[in-house]
Structure formats: structure tokens, C-alpha cells
Write a structure and sequence with these properties.
heterodimer, A: 220 residues, alpha/beta, five-stranded antiparallel sheet, 6 helices, 12 strands, globular, B: 695 residues, alpha+beta, 42% helix, extended
Chain lengths: 220, 695
């Protein structure tokens, strides 16, 4: 029996499931079914062309994505990138992956467009419905305080091995946040050396550094 | 508004005499820096020579004289320039007749120097007015009794110049308020000797001379010029367009490596450097007896010389800028980089360098207190140019070292074989009665040596195998633990949910325990995958501040499922505070993880009733004492000194590397480690002492 979600003018009654492993898709299927929604298993391989991607997004009302999708030939992009694309296309999508295994560097650059990141061990019918509600809210412009971006000062503590280590004094002056150098605009990368300061927008309401994302870096 | 008062009134800023002290000696407290400013004024005046004399300065009341042979100042120059404080650098960037770019003084350092004595007397003979000289005496005590600086008039007296008197400027600072200590003189002499680029031997260049024995010593020292004994000479050139190239030559002048701009800037994707043009020279020495065996100078001489002048000095428009390259000033972080990658890296103790910048546009601004440059984009780009060149040289030297090692690896067995033949031949030529004895001894030596080589080969192979295991685990983390764990977790939770609905009250008795067991086991499995990946997280290898207790807590949280699974309780007795030190998270983690692994392994040999591990810390002065104790069987079956040796283990299939890693890591941090066979809890006790930065 389906129990569609009615979320501010949007009805979610079906959820596409994207994972490169069939047995994992089937496990997700059980949780989606138990949450009162209709599961749509996507066996892949996933398309790259915009038309096919648009058609993919019409097959269900929302989606749940694994992150590691490039290990086999399931997809040319990882789940974080897909969820960001879905969000920009106004299609509710949440990412379901273990944070450590996913490597924070891979996900942070897309985090701004990932309203919900769930650990698979925390996935349940309740958390799925709540997560989809949060996604729909954010698409409707109701962004939670932990996801709202604020202009702030960022200080570079160190840069090595393709990573930049920064402090956000407005967030936590004692915690160093690591981001890949490639996440900075090209013209700022050579300037990211110890002691340099930049202004950028960050969701300062985030509770942990895994939730932080950076955007709108200001040119020198 | 009061009737009779005009509608507008003229006003201007005025200054109390206090401002002289605040802008002078308070902003520029260093005596040698103040005198250097007077010397730089001589450079700006195209002087060839500038003499500094200290008279009776070992006690208050002495005097300092700074006299040069530059083009001097007219009365207008004195009024409109010398007496004007705080003028912006950009307005004075026209080259002098000798082509020197002015040093950009705002006059505040000069003010500080002038205020060293109770009086300052300026005598100037301008080259533009060959028959005249001008004298100005400033009595600083006169400023004490007035409200405003303007209330003290200064009089410049013009008078006929004595016949034959050359142009120049002579400043006398009389009745010094304090004495000048020997340490100040030494610092001043070092600064003077380095001021006008002694790296370039040009007899027509600017020569500051200090009348003091320390100066003669320092001057002699820098004149020795051991550059020819450097093993490597790096020259990197940055042009106006921000493009760089570099070469490295050996001590005989042969080119070893060459780099184009793209080679130097790979890490910044070829971006041009946005700073003035510059040339960077670095002479790197290998300070061991072997490399100096064939050199003219001695190792001791060069070491002393580098101690006095080592480091990278920065020259702007021909003059040295303090504090770059000063004692204990490692502004290019060469020592830090060497700490991170020790091999083939220069440090301030074994190299000397000069970064000469030509800045006609004043892109580089010196701070008002002369403590270096304002660290804007131009400075950072300049530093990046020099550090990129150093980095490139380091990599090329490493390649060379690697090639040498490969060659040695191939050559070594051949050399051994040749040596063996020589010895065997020598034995054959020995008297018959000694031959058997020698042969036996040599055979025994060969066997020991072969065993040693085998042991080393096995150790290297073990490190490689363990590294490969780690790499493989990381590569296959997704398949090995990620997916199966996801399936098991999701499926177990589905069973739990549906079981509760279908079986209601009977669920608890029928399915609750097995489902909980599945979920708990899966949690342990998940930890193995994430713990493995967590250990190789690159951000943990970054050297910086490490909060020790945060690392301890992190490890205990990560290991919790394993510890629970093995029924091991870990207690902590941590001293108050938040001790931190300079290292990497990975290093502290490696120490603690290996000690915990050691304790866990010991419980497999003997089964105590309760398995306990205690982690205790005490803090004394700036040392953290970290102890890990257990109630296992202790250290037995192996000598206490041998437990640290690689390959030594009492465990079947043990690697024997855990405690070696602990020992080596502790030593790298500058700490000490020791062990007791049977500690307070009855089992092994390991104690580590680590130097702290703070608590």
C-alpha cells in the first residue's frame, strides 16, 4: 500500500533507486516499500546525454543515490555529482553513503546541492520520508539554518599534496577543514598558501565539518 | 554660533612631542635597524662608502657617527626631504644618477636613530653647491618642555665649505641615552656586512664600514666566499612577465638540471608569478668529511661561515631587507620542508642564498617598523617563485639519489664478489698452517653476513607487502566491506521492522536476539573497513598542532566494537588539561594503535579473567608521559631490548614491526619510549615521553 508524501504542492509516491549493485538496490527496495512509497530500481548503465538524463528524472517522483557508482560501468559520474544535478533540475534526491568511505573531498564540492546525506546504517522508512521532505523543502526555497550560506573569512593554515587546510574563525577557530585545491577557483589556487585569507560563502550553521560547503569565492 | 565669530575657521593637525617617541624609538626599537636606516640614506645618496664610528658607546653618553661620500643635501633637500617624516615610498622611486632605486624609507627609522642621543647634528655638503655646507643641530631635550612639535624651531646654518672637503653627509648622534652592548654591535656588523649584497663582488658597489673589531671579523668572514665549495648551486630567474627558469650546477660548474617555467610551476598549473622580477641563488652544501676531502676549504670553516650567514637573504633594489635570512629566520620554511622530506633538502644550516628583487613599481611594501614586507600578493608570489625553485631542485636531487642507490644496488653484489675473491686469494697465499684457520674464520664471517643480508631483504619485502596490503584494502574497500555491509544492515533492519509487525509480541522471543547479533557484528565489520581507510587519510599526515587527547578518544571510539567483541575494557586516567604538540595526527595514532594491538595480541596467549588496558597520562613541565598498561602475560620469551627490533615477535604470523614503528615514530617526534616486562597491572607496560608545545 503506498502512502504518498504531500509536500507543499509536490506529491512523492515513487522513488528511483540508484546503486551499482543489484543486491544493494533490492535492500533499498525493502526500505522504500516499508516507507509507503513505490520503489523503481534503476539497473543502469546510466546515460550521459541531457535528454536521456531528463527522461530518467521523469520515471519517479524522487531518488535515492549511492555514491560509488564508477567502480563498475554503471555510471561515468559518482552519486554526489548526480544528486547535485538532480537538485539543480528540481528533482528531490538524497545521497546515501558512508561519509568516511566516500572521502569527504569527493563530496564537498557538491555538498551545497545535496540537501540530505544519509548513512546507510541510519536509513529507515522514517528517515527516508523525513529526508525526502527536507529535499522538497529546500527545492521550494525553505533552506534549513544549517544549510544557509554566509559570507565569511577563511584563513589558509597549510597547503600540501593537492589539499588546502583552512580555518573558519566564524565557525570554529580550533578546527582545521580540509578541501581539495581543485575546489578553489582557478585564479585563487596559486594564492592558497599558509597565512592567506579569502572571503567566501559557507554554511556556518553546520554542526560538523562534513556538512560544510564553500561557494562564491571572492577574487583577490 | 557666537555673534562676531567668523563662519569658517582654519585648522590643521598638530603633534605633541610624544609623537616623536611613538613614531621613533617605540615603532623602531631595534638600535641596529635605526642605524641601518641612516646607512640606507647614504646608499640612496649614491655614496660609495659609508663609515660608522662608535665612540665610548660601552656606557651611556657615547656617540655614533655616520659619514658618507654621497651627493649630500642642499638646504631645500633637508627641509623638503630629510626633515619630512612618513612620506610614501611610491613618490620616491626615481633611480639615482648611479641607477640605484631608493630604499623607500619613510624616515621613521631615521627618526629613531637620530633620537639615540640627546643631540643629533647633521652636516651636509651637497655636490650641487660645491662651496657650501649646511649644519643642523637637533636638541631633543628642547622638545620636552613644549606643547607641540611646531614650537621648537630648527635652524639650518649655511657656511663656506673648507677647501678640499668632498661632498657627502655626516651625522653625529651625541650623548647617547644608553650604551651599545657587544651583542648589538655584533648584530649591527652582521647586518652591515650583508646590507649591500656581498654575494656580488663589485668593487664599485656600496661599502658600509663599521669601526669596531666585530665588524672586521664579520667582514673577513663574509669575504671568505666559500660559494665554490657548495655541492649544488641553484639559479632561478624570474622575468618581467612572471615567467621563470632555473638551472642547478655542481661544485665544478657543470650543469646538472635545467627547468623551464612549466617544470617549476606544475603545482600551480603554469600560472605566471605576479611579482617583480627577481633572481634566486642558493648554494647548498653537503657537510660531511667525504665531500670536503677534495676541497680547498675545511669542513669546520664552512660550518662556521654558514652558522654566521646561512639562510636565504632577500635584497630589494640592491639592499638587504631585514629579517629575511637573519639568525633563526627561516622565512622560506626550508627547515620545515626538510623535516617533512629529509632527503636531499637544504636547510638554513647547510645552505646560503640570495633572492635579489628589482622592484621599480613599489609592488613590495616594507612595514613601517621594518619587520619585513607587508604580506600582500607580490610578496607571496615572490616567495612562491623561490620555494617552487627549491622544490624542483629537491625533486631532481632525489631522482639523482635514487639513481645512485639503484646503481649501488647493482654494483654492491659485484663489489662483494670481487672482495670475496681477493680475500680468498690472500688466504691461499698465506702459510699452510694458517690457511685452514683463516678459511674457517672467513667462511663463518660470510655465513653471518649472508644471514644479515637475508634478514634485511625480508624486512624490506615485509614493508612492501604490508604497504601493498594497505593499498589493496583501500582500493577494494567499496567491495570488501561497503556493499555487503549495506546489504546486511538494510536487510536485517527490514527483518526487524516486518518481524515486529507480523509477529508482534512474539518478535522479541523469536527474532530479536539474532537480529541484534547480526547488526552488532555488521557494526564491527564496518569499523574494520573505516578504521583501515581512516589510518591512511592524507589530512592525518599533515604536520601541525595535534591534540593528544582527541587522538586517544578517536582511536578508542574507532576500536570500541573490536574491544567490546574481545571483552576488553579500556580505562583512561588522563591528566588535566588539553596537551598538544607539533606532529601529525597519523604519528600519534600509529603509536597508540600499535600499542593497543600489542596488548590485544598478548591476551590471545593467556586468558585473564578480565581483560584490562589502562591508558594513563601525566604532564610535567612541557613533557607528556603516556603509559599503556595491560593485565596480559607481560613481555616474556624475548629480551627487553630486542622487542623494538624489526621482525622480532613472539606471535605466529606476527610481523614484528608494531613496536619498531612505535619506537621510530616516538624518536621522530623527539620523544623517548621504554617498556617494563610486568607493569602495574601485571602485564606489559609501555611509557612514552613526548615534548609538548602547550597544555
Amino acid at each position: 500500500m503506498t502512502l504518498p508524501l504531500e509536500l507543499g504542492g509536490r506529491t512523492v509516491s515513487s522513488v528511483s533507486i540508484f546503486d551499482d549493485q543489484e543486491d544493494v538496490r533490492q535492500s533499498y527496495q525493502e526500505t522504500v516499500t516499508d516507507s509507503g512509497l513505490k520503489p523503481i530500481l534503476e539497473p543502469g548503465p546510466l546515460p550521459d546525454d541531457p535528454e536521456s538524463v531528463a527522461a530518467l528524472m521523469l520515471r519517479a517522483d524522487a531518488a535515492i543515490w549511492d555514491h560509488h557508482l564508477r567502480v563498475k560501468s554503471y555510471s561515468s559520474k559518482n552519486g554526489a555529482e548526480w544528486v547535485a544535478e538532480c537538485t539543480r533540475a528540481n528533482w528531490p534526491a538524497l545521497l546515501c553513503t558512508k561519509w568516511e568511505g566516500a572521502a569527504p573531498d569527493e563530496i564537498r564540492r557538491y555538498r551545497r546541492f545535496i540537501p540530505v546525506l544519509l548513512n546507510p546504517s541510519d536509513l529507515s522508512p522514517d528517515s527516508l520520508r523525513t529526508g525526502l521532505a527536507i529535499c522538497c523543502d529546500e527545492l521550494a526555497g525553505r533552506v534549513r539554518p544549517t544549510r544557509r550560506g554566509w559570507r565569511t573569512l577563511v584563513r589558509v593554515e597549510d597547503a600540501s599534496e593537492g589539499m588546502v587546510y583552512v580555518i573558519l574563525p566564524s565557525w570554529n577557530a580550533n578546527e582545521v577543514v580540509a578541501l581539495p585545491l581543485r575546489d578553489l577557483p582557478t585564479d585563487l589556487r596559486p594564492l592558497a598558501t599558509e597565512g592567506r585569507r579569502f572571503h567566501t560563502k559557507v554554511n556556518l550553521g553546520a554542526e560538523t565539518q562534513s556538512e560544510l560547503f564553500f561557494f562564491d569565492w571572492e577574487p583577490e | 554660533m557666537c555673534p562676531g565669530r567668523p563662519a569658517k575657521m582654519q585648522a590643521r593637525f598638530r603633534f605633541t612631542p610624544d609623537i616623536l617617541r611613538r613614531l621613533g624609538e617605540e615603532l623602531n626599537p631595534s638600535l641596529d635597524q635605526g642605524i641601518l636606516e641612516l646607512v640606507k640614506n647614504a646608499y640612496d645618496a649614491d655614496a660609495h662608502e659609508c663609515r660608522i664610528e662608535l665612540r665610548g658607546t660601552d656606557q651611556p653618553g657615547g656617540s655614533v657617527r655616520v659619514a658618507d661620500d654621497g651627493f649630500g643635501m642642499t638646504a631645500e633637500d633637508i627641509i623638503g626631504g630629510w626633515l619630512v617624516l612618513g612620506r610614501s615610498t611610491k613618490s620616491a622611486l626615481r633611480p639615482t644618477p648611479l641607477g640605484r632605486l631608493p630604499s623607500g624609507s619613510k624616515g621613521l627609522g631615521r627618526l629613531a636613530a637620530l633620537r639615540l642621543g640627546r643631540t643629533a647634528t647633521l652636516l651636509s655638503r651637497p655636490s650641487a653647491e660645491s662651496a657650501v655646507e649646511y649644519v643642523l643641530t637637533i636638541d631633543w631635550d628642547a622638545f620636552e618642555g613644549v606643547s607641540l612639535v611646531d614650537d621648537v624651531p630648527l635652524t639650518i646654518v649655511g657656511r663656506p665649505r673648507p677647501k678640499g672637503a668632498a661632498s657627502g653627509t655626516d651625522i653625529l648622534l651625541a650623548d647617547l641615552r644608553t650604551c651599545i652592548l657587544p651583542g648589538d654591535v655584533k648584530r649591527l656588523s652582521r647586518a652591515l656586512v650583508l646590507l649591500a649584497d656581498p654575494f656580488v663582488q663589485d668593487p664599485s658597489s656600496f661599502q658600509p664600514i663599521l669601526s669596531a673589531p666585530e665588524y672586521a671579523d664579520a667582514e673577513a668572514f663574509v669575504q671568505h666566499r666559500y660559494f665554490g665549495d657548495a655541492e649544488f648551486h641553484l639559479t632561478a630567474v624570474l622575468d618581467e612577465a612572471g615567467r621563470a627558469h632555473a638551472t642547478v650546477t655542481d661544485w665544478q660548474g657543470a650543469t646538472l638540471f635545467k627547468a623551464l617555467h612549466s617544470d617549476l610551476t606544475a603545482a600551480r598549473h603554469g600560472a605566471h608569478y605576479r611579482c617583480p622580477r627577481a633572481t634566486f641563488d642558493l648554494w647548498a652544501f653537503i657537510l660531511n668529511r667525504n665531500s670536503f676531502a677534495s676541497r680547498a676549504s675545511t669542513l669546520a670553516e664552512v660550518k662556521l661561515w654558514l652558522q654566521a650567514f646561512g639562510g636565504v637573504h632577500l635584497y630589494l633594489n640592491g639592499l638587504r631587507v631585514s629579517p629575511y635570512g637573519g639568525p633563526a629566520n627561516d622565512w622560506m620554511e626550508m627547515n620545515l620542508r626538510r623535516a617533512q622530506i629529509a632527503e636531499e633538502r637544504p636547510s638554513t644550516n647547510n645552505s646560503i642564498g640570495r633572492l635579489a628583487v628589482s622592484d621599480a613599481q613599489a609592488a613590495l611594501l616594507q612595514k613601517t617598523d621594518r619587520s619585513g614586507f607587508v604580506e600582500g600578493e607580490a610578496f607571496h608570489e615572490l616567495k612562491a617563485f623561490a620555494t617552487d625553485a627549491l622544490e624542483w631542485m629537491g625533486k631532481r636531487r632525489l631522482e639523482l639519489a635514487d639513481q645512485r642507490r639503484s646503481k649501488a644496488r647493482v654494483e654492491a653484489p659485484r663489489q662483494t664478489e670481487r672482495s670475496r675473491h681477493l680475500v680468498e686469494k690472500a688466504i691461499e697465499s698465506a702459510p699452510k698452517r694458517k690457511r685452514e684457520e683463516l678459511k674457517g674464520a672467513f667462511d663463518s664471517y660470510n655465513r653471518s653476513r649472508d644471514r644479515e643480508v637475508d634478514a634485511l631483504r625480508r624486512e624490506v619485502q615485509l614493508y612492501r607487502t604490508l604497504s601493498t596490503a594497505g593499498i589493496t584494502a583501500a582500493t577494494f574497500a567499496h567491495e570488501s566491506s561497503g556493499n555487503p555491509i549495506k546489504v546486511i544492515t538494510l536487510s536485517a533492519r527490514t527483518i526487524e521492522r516486518r518481524g515486529k509487525i507480523a509477529l508482534r509480541a512474539e518478535y522479541a522471543s523469536l527474532l530479536a536476539r539474532p537480529v541484534e547479533s547480526i547488526l552488532a557484528s555488521v557494526a564491527s565489520l564496518a569499523v574494520l573497513g573505516s578504521a583501515t581507510l581512516s589510518l591512511i587519510d592524507h589530512s592525518k599526515r599533515r604536520v601541525g598542532r595535534v591534540d593528544v587527547y582527541a587522538v586517544i578518544q578517536g582511536i578508542l571510539t574507532t576500536f570500541q566494537p573490536f574491544l567490546a567483541g574481545r571483552e576488553v575494557s579500556v580505562e583512561t586516567e588522563l591528566a588535566a588539561g588539553n596537551p598538544y604538540l607539533r606532529s601529525s595526527h597519523a604519528a600519534i595514532e600509529a603509536i597508540l594503535t600499535n600499542l593497543l594491538n600489542n596488548s590485544l595480541a598478548s591476551f590471545e596467549r593467556v586468558q585473564p579473567h578480565t581483560r584490562r588496558i589502562l591508558i594513563r597520562t601525566t604532564i610535567t613541565a612541557h613533557v607528556l608521559r603516556l603509559s599503556v598498561l595491560d593485565n596480559g602475560p607481560g613481555i616474556a620469551g624475548i629480551a627487553l631490548d630486542d622487542i623494538w627490533l624489526p621482525g622480532e615477535t613472539t606471535r605466529p604470523n606476527g610481523t614484528g614491526l608494531g613496536l619498531t614503528i612505535v619506537r621510530d615514530t616516538v624518536r621522530d617526534i623527539g620523544g623517548e619510549v621504554s617498556a617494563r616486562e610486568h607493569g602495574e597491572l601485571g602485564g606489559a607496560e609501555f611509557t612514552i615521553e613526548l615534548p609538548l608545545l602547550g597544555v
